[in-house]
Design a protein that fits this description.
- It contains twelve helices and 14 strands.
- By secondary structure, it is of the alpha/beta class.
- The strands form three sheets. A six-stranded parallel sheet has the order 3-2-1-4-7-8, with helices on both faces. A six-stranded parallel sheet has the order 11-10-9-12-13-14.
- Strand 7, helix 4 and strand 8 form a beta-alpha-beta unit.
- The longest helix has 25 residues.
- The mean pLDDT is 91.
């Protein structure tokens, strides 16, 4: 296995990263940690006091799904001291070592470029996004169950958007015997919605569909559930917004209209950290295998 014996630096993150570390250890990697809440003391794990210490000699670097702030501060869980990734630290990494991050920004892009390290932004990759949509969908439905005084069974649900997460949410709702409608802009998605056994909703009819729904799931990272769209929603309606923060819902309008609306970013790390962590680790392992295979062919 391509990670066997390799030194991997894991910097920051939540429970997902802790679970990813367990997977990497089983694959034979040597792991150095910083900015991560770690209680287990497995052989092969070295807990470091700083990002620079963890990065020294690393052959692979894994940063959190949430990425780093514009000043280089890495996301850490509540109660964990902040951790920084800077140019000095990245220059301590082995030459050509890949740096994995969920979501990058211009600052991290520049640091990796100056350090001569390839940057892999994994959150939007097809594999990661598709697998990650399942715990996201399960978490969204769990939140809906906690927020409604009625069952999903027999309810009228509306999913806004038919991307990876929208498709997963709609599929699970159908399995729970909800009457599922899905709103999407493109004619191709309209056809796919119909073929999946859901009721397609044209974008121009979104407000009408909202007025007929008990539970609304938004997956579109743009302002789609506006005050005008929400004004006709039933007062018992519940809105679960799983789009990237700040979501696509006018939460102030929802509150003023007496609607229950919840923003739910990062659900995989909350409801299914074991699965979500394994997805990250498997992505890293596959990339390293593929890279080693390509180098072996040269």
């Amino acid at each position: 296995m391509s990670v066997y014996g390799k030194q991997i630096a894991v910097i920051g993150g939540d429970r997902r990263m802790a679970e990813a570390v367990h997977f990497l250890l089983r694959a034979g990697a040597r792991v150095r940690l910083a900015g991560l809440d770690w209680e287990d003391r497995f052989a092969g794990v070295e807990v470091c006091s700083s990002g620079a210490e963890a990065l020294t000699g690393a052959q692979t670097v894994i940063l959190p799904v949430q990425g780093v702030s514009p000043d280089g501060t890495v996301y850490t869980a509540e109660g964990v001291p902040p951790c920084v990734v800077d140019l000095d630290g990245l220059r301590r990494v082995a030459r050509g070592a890949p740096v994995f991050v969920g979501l990058s920004n211009p600052h991290l892009n520049r640091l990796c470029e100056e350090a001569g390290l390839p940057l892999i932004e994994y959150r939007e990759s097809d594999h990661f996004a598709t697998w990650n949509s399942i715990p996201s969908a399960e978490g969204a439905i769990q939140m809906a169950m906690e927020s409604t005084p009625f069952t999903i069974f027999g309810s009228r649900s509306l999913v806004v958007g038919f991307g990876r997460t929208g498709r997963a949410v709609a599929l699970l709702l159908k399995g729970l015997m909800s009457e599922v409608s899905v709103a999407a802009r493109s004619e191709l998605d309209q056809a796919r919605i119909w073929a999946a056994g859901h009721r397609p909703v044209e974008w121009a009819s979104l407000a009408q569909a909202v007025s007929e729904s008990d539970i609304i799931f938004n997956t579109v990272p743009a302002p789609v559930l506006t005050r005008a769209v929400l004004s006709g929603a039933p007062r018992h309606a519940v809105i679960i917004d799983v789009a990237s923060a700040p979501g696509g819902t006018d939460f102030e309008a929802a509150r003023e209209l007496g609607l229950t609306a919840r923003l739910a970013p990062g659900l995989p790390g909350i409801v299914a950290p074991v699965t979500a962590g394994r997805i990250i680790a498997e992505l890293v392992v596959r990339h390293l295998r593929r890279t080693d295979a390509m180098e072996g062919e040269r």
